[in-house]
Amino acid sequence: MPRKLRNGLLILGTTLVVAALAWPPTDTPSGGQASRSLALPDAPGVPDTPDQAPDLSSLPAAEKLREGIDSPTGTPDSAEAARTSGERPVASSPVEDGNDSAPQWQVQTVRSGDNLATVFKRAGLSARDVYDVVNAGDPAGQLTRVFPGDEVYLQKSADNRLLGLRYAMSPSRTLHLRRDADGDWKPFVKTVELERRNAQAEGRIESSLYNAGIEAGLSDALIMELAGIFGWDIDFALDLRNNDSFVVIYETLHRDGQKVRNGDILAAEFVNRGERFRALRYETPAGESNYYTPDGRSMRKAFLRTPTDFTRVSSDFNPDRVHPVYGTKRPHRGTDYAAPPGTPIKAAGDGKIIERGRKGGYGNTVVLKHGTRYTTLYGHMRGFANGHSVGDRVQQGEIIGYVGSTGVSTGPHLHYEFRVDGTHRNPRTVDLPEAEPIAEQYRDDFERETSDLLARLDGISPTRVAQAGE
């Protein structure tokens, strides 16, 4: 072979070897996995280990490489001498010297129908990895309940070994899993304090509370919370009138300047049929929270006004009613609330079960005793809630049964009776006993903590509609 051709091939080969060694390696995930490597920010639910590129600062300059190739001594022997003396890229390569860059984080987004096993399988992890993670101890067990849209961050080694996991349990709490010195998983939770701001909204009833709330910018949850606060005083299914109005002051929670969710209602006002109701949220130094009137009376009554969600009142309290089945005059000593079969029925107040079972024309029935003066009856139930028996105590709002049409009944409904000292009273109009007012030991603190909220309620213009969440 001619000398010039041999030298040309040698130079070309050396150039290709140098180029291959100098180019930083890249890892390409196999199998088309639906994941992506991220340079992850330091935020809740997001790993904070940044991607690190290989350090190429010790590589010789291109001019030096060309010198070695173009010089008369650019032979295989001289190339070997250069490699062993540390002048070549091999010596400083993070792959060759065993100092890999930090393992990359990947994020897997939970899809509809996914559980942790399918998420891990998509990431190339094994069933054993799933078992080890969910059995790492509290609160790692929460990973058995992931939801579409959730993001699970995974840190893996070059040989696909799982090294770390992070999962946002809430906007402020992030679950971390990390291996200890023995290789066992250790779960812990990091909490980030959210910034709290106040927002306000007001509206006027034209068709329903829900429609007015949506128009004012309230979420479904805030509308339900508003109805719950005033539900002891106002029957929102029957008592609302056009031009009733409301004002709501509530918390919004933010992280890094971005709103993450709504908080609690802090103060609210509702005007129903010209009567004004106000509620202020107060949390005691012991951490117990409730809603009170401005003078410290609890908004919560000892009894719910209606113990089920109903579509209409099918028969009102009427001592002179003609019975729809028997056709004779028989007093109707309660209120019938029509509702779909299976609608939950709640205990109207704290009490003890004194009857539970079949009761003549009432069908499946529960009777509760509340203290020494009050009893409530719930009739025509389809069935009873599990876990209760005669003599058990129940709390206000606890489910005791389900709407049905057992006994003498013309359709699914709840027959509800309210008795005071053994006398039947109209459940819709009876004066309900008040719950306990704010304790005297907290009275001064209550007035200090709620004075600003009360002033804001006084100062909100009834003609201005504040848009929520802005």
From TrEMBL:
GO molecular function annotation: metal ion binding; metalloendopeptidase activity; peptidoglycan binding
UniProt domain Csd3-like second N-terminal: residue ranges: 197-319
InterPro entries reported in the protein's UniProt record: Cell_wall_metabolism_enzyme, Csd3_N2, Dup_hybrid_motif, LysM_Opacity-associatedA, M23ase_b-sheet_dom
Any Pfam family matching the protein: Peptidase_M23
Gene Ontology BP term (one): proteolysis
Region (Disordered): 26-102, 321-342
UniProt entry keywords in alphabetical sequence: Hydrolase, Metal-binding, Metalloprotease, Protease, Zinc
Cofactor entry: Zn(2+)
First and last residue of the signal peptide: none
Start and end residues of each Opacity-associated protein A LysM-like domain: 104-185
Subcellular location as annotated: Cell envelope
Record domain M23ase beta-sheet core: where: 331-427
A GO CC term assigned to this protein in UniProt: cell envelope
Name by which UniProt lists this protein: Opacity-associated protein A-like protein
